[in-house]
Amino acid sequence: MGARPATVVISGYYGFGNSGDEAVLQSIVIALRDEADKLGFKIEPIVLSNDPAETSRMYGVRAVHRLKPHHLLRAIWKCDGVISGGGSLLQDVTGIGSIPYYLAVVGMAQWLGKPTFVYSQGIGPVNRKSFYPWIRRVLGRCRYLSVRDEESAELLERMRIERGRIHVVPDPVMGLPLRGARALEGGGSEERPLIGVSVRFWNEDRSELDGLAAALADIRARRDVRIRFLPFHLPSDAEASRYVIGRMGLPADDKNVEIVENAAHPQDMLAEVGACRLLVGMRLHSLIYAASQLVPMIGISYDPKIDQFLRRLRMTAAASTRRFSREAVVAEALKLLDAPDEWRQDKQQAIEALKRQAQEPARQIVSFFRQQRGT
Questions:
Q1: What is the domain count for the chain?
Q2: 68, 116: one domain
């Protein structure tokens, strides 16, 4: 009779329809199960979700509501450990409630004597320094602490967390595999190249989206391409995509610009990105998807996390929401469309290394439970 699986609660921004965060969850679940299988061990994830039924359906895991205290406490009480991550959980830019919530989940687990782990998080920005002692206290008690970039590690150092305890690893999504051998219509191999575009609302005056619309119109005037918008966070990214399309000056019967409507599962969106000759992305995980599939990319920076990821590939953003350069985006797009293999050859070694390193948190966590049980 086999040993009882180790039950691990996973806390993050899950069940909100954000493809990037859903990809983080899918990547963590796959990595944990893969590493456990290698050691002849079983891991049973329990996900804290805003939509437990949908999370269970999509990923084949147990899930409980993240905001129902009785369900949340019961899951932590009965589990063998708690994982916090990945994503940008400990930041106060999107609101003041994020840091207290995620720290409270981990702190509750620690109070109950459960081992806790931080899985490749992006830390910050943390503008309220009053959060520093709380972050230091909770993260300082974790058995394993990993972040997705050097900037996050440096911020934790400024909070006086010992640098030697902080492991810098890639975003978990770098390790997300394609689901089967799915082939999409179009993509990098067809005569008319496909450009994938991931946008979001950011500036109040929409100046960055107006600039991108003009850039995409210029690219279409110079190259015979198709454009496919890839909404990573519904419904807002679909609305942003329609905004850009509306500013491109397209004929009413133009069939070469479209929006993907049916890629709710992260691996379906990964396949959509993999079908592209070029990806122009604002969303971080659109760029990570592109890198993982060796799709040449252009980053548009609205947040330091975009620049931090691009630096790992020795790249910089072609434009930012603060200063959008239409000319730079067009020039880079034409270069990559005309010579995609040069980009792939230059980046492939670094990308393969990131994929391998993305598994490290799962290896560490599974090894902890295996050693704890003496199996």
A1: 2
A2: yes
How far apart CA 293 and CA 289 sit, in angstroms, is 6
CA angle 169/233/72 to nearest 5° reads 70
Dihedral sign from CA coordinates of 153, 169, 42, 13? positive
Domain that residue 161 falls in: 6-169+358-373
In a domain, 253, yes or no: yes
Q: Per-residue confidence of the chain (375 residues) as pLDDT tens digits?
A: 357 889 999 999 999 988 889 999 999 999 999 999 998 889 999 999 999 999 999 999 999 999 999 999 999 999 999 999 888 999 998 889 999 999 999 999 999 999 999 999 999 999 999 999 999 999 999 999 999 999 999 999 999 999 999 999 999 999 999 876 444 443 444 578 999 999 999 999 999 999 999 999 999 999 999 999 999 998 999 999 999 999 999 988 899 999 998 888 899 999 999 999 999 999 999 999 999 999 999 999 999 899 999 999 999 999 999 999 999 999 999 999 999 999 999 999 999 999 999 999 999 999 999 888 765
CA separation, residue 134 to residues 28, 106, 156, 178, 354 (Å):
26, 11, 12, 39, 31
| CATH assignment at residue 344 | 3.40.50.2000
In a domain, 129, yes or no: yes
d(CA 372, CA 4): 13
Same domain, 58 and 207: no
